[in-house]
UniProtKB/TrEMBL annotation:
GO molecular function: cyclic-guanylate-specific phosphodiesterase activity
SUPFAM superfamilies assigned: EAL domain-like, GAF domain-like, Nucleotide cyclase, PYP-like sensor domain (PAS domain)
Signal peptide: none
Pfam assignment, any one: GGDEF
All residue ranges annotated as the PAS domain in the record: 27-63
Protein name: Diguanylate cyclase/phosphodiesterase (GGDEF / EAL domains) with PAS/PAC sensor(S)
Length: 851
């Protein structure tokens, strides 16, 4: 575009009239030895020089390149100064300003005539903000990985500092705490041009109305504090900043229990590295670290309490509702043999037989009423009978007694074991079910008991699909309420003789005991899937969930409880491949497939870091075959080979990677806006598909609006395609999201319409503009019933003032039928296949776009 514009002007004065006053481009003209003979104010501001300081200075002095590149540029300069006419556009370099700061730039270079001599005209575009955004996005990705891998608070925070400097390339990072109103560094990391030992902060933290330093503001506000240019701000960190040429800072307060526990101070030698436009990314980093530290603290406390329980001298026993013992703690009163024998026995087995005969009636009657039994009881132990002060409580869930908890301490001992401690270590707090360790132990004891009888049993692992989206959209409190509802349905549909547990994350485990054949478990599985997949009504929200169930069998798959549980987890892979609300079974070939999937997941994580996902563009046309828009389709550039989503999309959707990938592709599409706009008389809008995971992000609207501003888009360029299922996660949230983004000229389309719930009542409430008719209807147009359904969809869409786009049009016959039905737009191989952006640009350049 610049090259074409320059051709319209014959004299250098005209060039300078066009670009000399630009606020976007720095402009200079050079002659012999690269000496600058003209420079505009934007270049002066970029490089930090006064006008006279730039004139007669060689631009080689502030060009930061290696020796070979510099020689190549000097050759180009000689050709240009000899009068050779040629242009070089969009080359990326680093310029070094007056203060020694490297600034990323793109340049456009042309041969011109200045004051009667062949000269070089250079236009310089500052890419600092773009690079800053990339660094923050990369920082968020790296820190997300750290929060998953690290389980130690200090190691996590130190690793964050290392990553921010060593991988993200900020100049320095300081981890510190505020004590006695002073900020003290406890860990430091810096680039090699900064002496880490000199970073010895001992700063006084002052109220915001007294001090403008980023640390003080972060501490008192408990919010992220940015300084975009420290030279324009008086603060107490000035000596350090001046010594190492620091230009911008960011202080991130890390909160625990609503108090600032740590502050991470990041500094950079580039000004404006931390911009208010990028605050949403910094907020994500802060929230991830706060969440990770809370989880580490909770895990540490759980480990501590588990150790305390097992080292306790008190005896703790749990019975089911029939007074059968299901758990005994590792106390000092029972031998290992006696410990195993107790499981499955009635509680009376513990007590002195003569004494228990006397109290038996009142003992059971009291507990069955839900009242606590308190008293002195004699126990039959290996050393003989001992008297314990005994407390037995009923555990009530959903209005009925499900367990009894016994805590006994020897009369001679004074310490009392807390009921809360026991529950914390062996029960899930949200559902009341036993936890993972207790489940494995209970299963193991049962398998040992029935091994000689060849009893067939099954371990079942139940996994709600994409349950993490519930937590992201509604919060963990709502997530726990739904887990409680799932737990209630399980209890209502599983016999009391079986064992239900709450495993890690959102998974449940069930031990199905008495099976005549393995096939008998299918009846139970189908019943559970039917009940669990019914809608959940929680706080006036209607939530739809799907489930997968993985199954392994005792003794055929294994005779070890832990091994069987792992194999049931592997069987979930088989279930997921079959689809939603399906059961999977453990087989040897599933293990191989699982390993391959893990390898592919690791490759996908690396591909995200290396930005290997790209958009291909597939145009769609009107009835006259004019291009009216295009859909950006996801592709993976794997070692030069372009892979379709069918190879990897399911794994992306099973992880949080789908959000990163869709964000990456969306930014590439927005980055292509100016090129697409320049190639068409009328702007061709681009559609981008967003998954449910991306739509439910907390800061999606804020982030997207920020990106639109960053790429200078204030026209109806972007369309977002969402599937019908998105509405049922949180209809009100989706409606608010659409309304908010419509204010920024973002339009919405419903993708694959007709294959899901197809509820027109929802469409009347959503501010969408397009319906995409699914390819299955287009391929089935030869069938009369399918044809009538398609015609009805188009008619009803038009009655709601919605445009229709038919997907997968591959023949002229399909095109003519859809045109006669008054379909608005058409997409498919009959017109265009998905294209790399370069080919897409050429097509719209030749054919243009018509709205």
């Amino acid at each position: 575009m610049l090259k074409n514009l320059l051709r319209r002007y014959k004299k250098i004065n005209n060039y300078l009239n066009v670009f000399g006053s630009s606020d976007i481009f720095g402009v200079f003209v050079y002659q012999e030895n690269g000496k600058i003979v003209y420079a505009n104010k934007t270049l002066e501001k970029l490089l930090g020089y006064e006008h006279e300081g730039l004139l007669n200075k060689s631009f080689f002095d502030f060009l930061k390149v290696d020796f070979d590149t510099l020689n190549h540029i000097k050759d180009i300069v000689l050709k240009r100064l000899s009068g050779e006419l040629f242009a070089i556009e969009l080359k990326e370099y680093f310029f070094c300003n007056k203060h020694g700061i490297k600034i990323p730039v793109s340049i456009f270079a042309y041969t011109v005539d200045f004051e009667g001599k062949p000269s070089g005209l250079i236009l310089v575009f500052d890419k600092s903000k773009e690079k800053s955004y990339e660094k923050l996005f990369f920082a968020l990705s790296q820190i997300n990985q750290l929060t998953i891998r690290q389980n130690n608070e200090n190691d996590l925070l130190k690793a964050v500092c290392d990553v921010l400097v060593d991988k993200v390339s900020y100049s320095a990072c300081v981890l510190g705490v505020v004590k006695n109103k002073k900020f003290k560094a406890i860990y430091k990391r810096a680039k090699n041009y900064i002496d880490e030992s000199s970073i010895d902060f001992d700063l006084e933290v002052k109220p915001q109305n007294v001090c403008n330093c980023s640390v003080s503001k972060a501490y008192f506000s408990k919010k992220i504090s940015l300084i975009q240019n420290v030279s324009q701000t008086l603060n107490c960190e000035g000596d350090f900043f001046s010594k190492f040429n620091v230009r911008s800072t960011c202080a991130i307060p890390i909160l625990k229990n609503a108090k600032v526990s740590y502050i991470i101070l990041i500094v950079d030698t580039l000004p404006d590295t931390f911009d208010d436009k990028f605050l949403h990314l910094l907020n994500e980093i802060q929230e991830d670290l706060i969440f990770a530290l809370n989880k580490i603290e909770k895990d540490r406390f759980s480990l501590l309490t588990f150790s305390a329980l097992n080292q306790s001298n008190e005896l703790v026993v749990i019975c089911d509702s029939n007074f059968r013992i299901i758990f005994v703690n590792e106390g000092n009163y029972l031998s290992s043999d006696a410990f195993k024998v107790l499981i499955g026995k009635e509680i009376a087995y513990l007590f002195d037989k003569e004494q228990f005969k006397i109290i038996k009636s009142s003992f059971y009657n009291t507990l069955k009423k839900g009242e606590a039994f308190l008293g002195l009881l004699k126990y039959d132990l290996k050393e003989g009978s001992k008297e314990f002060y005994t407390s037995i409580y009923s555990f009530v869930d959903s209005g009925r007694i499900t367990h009894y908890i016994l805590i006994a301490k020897e009369v001679s001992q004074k310490e009392e074991l807390k009921d809360k401690l026991y529950k914390l270590m062996h029960f899930d707090e949200a559902t009341g079910f036993i936890n993972l360790n207790t489940f494995i132990y209970t299963c193991e004891l049962f398998f040992q008991k029935v091994l000689e009888h060849s009893q067939i049993s099954s371990i079942m692992v139940i996994n709600p699909i994409q349950f993490k989206n519930i937590n992201h959209a509604f919060g963990y409190e709502m997530g726990n309420k739904i887990l409680q509802e799932i737990a209630l349905r399980l209890k209502q549909n599983i016999r009391l003789s079986n064992v239900i547990a709450k495993l890690e994350s959102d998974r449940f485990g069930i031990l199905i005991k008495d099976l005549k054949t393995p096939e008998d478990v299918l009846v139970i599985t189908v019943k559970l899937l039917n009940e669990l997949s019914k809608p959940y009504m929680v706080e006036s929200h209607k939530i739809l969930l799907s489930f997968n169930i993985g199954l392994s069998f005792f003794p055929n798959d294994s005779k070890n409880a832990k091994d069987l549980l792992n194999k049931a987890q592997v069987a979930l892979v088989d279930a997921r491949q079959k689809g939603e609300n399906q059961a999977g079974f453990f087989r040897k070939d599933i293990e191989t497939k699982s390993s391959q999937k893990l390898k592919l997941k690791a490759e996908l994580e690396l591909a995200v870091l290396n930005k290997k996902f790209i958009p291909f563009y597939q145009p769609y046309v009107d009835k006259d075959k004019n291009i009216v828009g295009a859909e950006a389709l996801l592709r993976w550039n794997k070692n030069g080979k372009i892979l379709l989503p069918g190879k990897f999309l399911s794994i992306l959707e099973d992880t949080s990677l789908i959000v990163d990938v869709e964000s990456m592709v969306l930014n590439q599409v927005l980055g292509d806006f100016k090129t697409i706009k320049s190639y068409c008389k009328h702007l061709v809008p681009i559609s981008v598909n967003l998954s449910i995971q991306s739509l439910m992000q907390k800061h999606l609207a804020q982030s997207l609006v920020s990106n639109l501003k960053y790429f200078g888009i204030n026209e109806p360029f972007l369309r977002i395609e969402i599937i019908e299922r998105s509405f049922f996660n949180d209809f009100n949230y989706i409606r608010r999201l659409i309304d908010e983004l419509r204010q920024s000229s973002v339009h919405f389309a419903i993708d694959d319409f007709g294959t899901g719930y197809s509820s027109l009542s929802y469409l009347t409430k959503l501010n969408v503009e397009f319906l995409k008719i699914d390819i299955s209807f287009v391929r089935g147009l030869s069938n009369t019933q399918t044809k009538n359904i398609t015609k009805s969809i188009i008619y009803l869409a038009h009655s709601l003032n919605l445009k229709t786009i038919a997907e997968g049009v591959e023949s002229m016959e399909q095109f003519e039928i859809l045109k006669n039905m008054d379909c608005d737009y058409f997409q498919g191989y009959l017109f265009y296949k998905p294209l790399p952006k370069e080919e897409f640009f050429e097509i719209i350049k030749c054919k243009g776009g018509v709205l």
